[in-house]
Amino acid sequence: MKIIITYLTGIFLSFLIFSCKKINDIKKVDIDRNLSFFYLEKPLDSERQKIYEILKKQNDETGFVNDLPSNCGIPIWEKILIEEKISNREMGDSLEDIIIPLTISNEDLSALLKLESENGVYVIQCYLTNLLKEYCFSNNPSYKSTG
Questions:
Q1: 98 near 80, Cβ under 8 Å?
Q2: How far apart are CA 57 and CA 38, in angstroms?
Q3: Cα–Cα distance measured from residue 62 to residue 54, given in angstroms and rounded to the nearest whole number
Q4: Distance (Å, rounded) from C-alpha 5 to C-alpha 16?
Q5: What's the predicted TM-score (pTM) here?
Q6: Nearest to 102 by CA among 29, 33, 46, 32
Q7: Per the CB 3.0–4.6 Å rule, which of 49, 104, 106, 112 could disulfide with 73?
Q8: Distance from first CA to last CA of the chain, Å, rounded?
Q9: Contact, 103 vs 74, CB < 8 A?
Q10: For 111-143, what is each residue's pLDDT tens digit?
Q11: Where are the alpha helices (DSSP H) in the chain?
């Protein structure tokens, strides 16, 4: 009887040891937000379509969408604001700011994506609305403006 119990205990322990996996071996599931980020419900006008294509190309090169904060939301593409600041057509220089509102719920603004362009080179910054609200309305914001 002792031999059977010892034998069964050995099988059970072997099964237990070999069925366990290290936590490091379990692959993380990468969430690819590109599909939802670049989804268009309806066609854009030519100016906004150009911005859309520039961002899509930039994302293909850098993968910036998956580096954005997870709670920033998805773009409201038809509400893109484009402000041309300086344009010197004789020299071929132009400077523009592009602001893309982002939403999580389609009811509230969750973030602003700001693109600054100088001669076709874009710098992308994401501003979460809770941080903007704190900066604008708090007497003691947790971060300071650099400008």
A1: yes
A2: 11
A3: 12
A4: 16
A5: 0.63
A6: 33
A7: 104
A8: 82
A9: yes
A10: 888 888 766 677 888 888 877 777 677 666 555
A11: 2-19, 34-37, 46-62, 129-137
